[in-house]
Design brief:
The protein is an alpha+beta fold. About 35% of the residues lie in helices and about 15% in strands. The model has no long low-confidence stretch (mean pLDDT about 95).
Length: about 70
């Protein structure tokens, strides 16, 4: 399962869904994620995007063996 504490430590902050999918080989959809309000700077790609603050149950199920 993806550890958001580890992501914050590795990247210096939280990252967007696209970066999560690319970095960890996931297939998360917008429905799988909880986002911070508004756009924030992604710590990985440095663009202003909707940054993931957590995963919903469906998202957690997709990351069980990652």
């Amino acid at each position: 399962m993806i550890d958001f504490g580890k992501i914050k430590k590795e990247h210096g902050g939280m990252i967007c869904r696209a970066c999560l999918n690319n970095e960890y080989g996931l297939n998360l959809t917008p429905k799988d994620c909880d986002y911070y309000d508004g756009r924030r700077k992604c710590a990985s790609c440095r663009y202003a995007k909707h940054v993931v603050k957590g995963l919903k149950l469906t998202g957690k199920m997709k990351t069980l063996f990652k």
